[in-house]
Design goal:
The protein has 117 residues and is an all-alpha fold. 70% of the residues lie in helices and 0% in strands.
């Protein structure tokens, strides 16, 4: 289980990073959500022409680039949640509980189909 203080530490470092560069003026929820989507698209580029098997074992050249894109995504997501005053860890845990109720393991195990009670 992640330590909530780790996410808060990251949030605070991002605040300080943006403040030191006077970037807060650009960090509107609209701009951050758009930047987040750009980073997700950059992540997708690394997988675009790979087979399913290849996506599970990335090459030594590709893995660091994928890690950087994942980091960019996390940073924008944390910054966006901060600007919207959303406790990201709390929201994620609530969503996980909601999904557990929506998709009971005994009814959906091994199936990728959408489950409707």
């Amino acid at each position: 289980m992640p330590n909530p203080s780790d996410l808060l530490l990251l949030r605070d470092k991002l605040r300080a990073f943006a403040e030191a560069r006077d970037w807060d003026q650009f960090h509107s929820p609209k701009n951050l959500s758009m930047a987040l989507m750009v980073e997700v698209a950059e992540l997708m580029e690394h997988f675009q022409w790979l087979t399913e098997a290849q996506t599970g074992s990335l090459s030594a050249e590709v893995k660091p680039a994928v890690a950087e894109e994942l980091a960019d995504i996390l940073l924008y997501l944390v910054r966006l949640s901060d600007k919207l005053d959303v406790d990201l860890l709390e929201a994620a845990l609530r969503k996980l509980e909601k999904n557990a109720m929506k998709y009971p393991a005994d009814k959906v195990r091994g199936s990728a189909k959408k489950y409707n009670s």
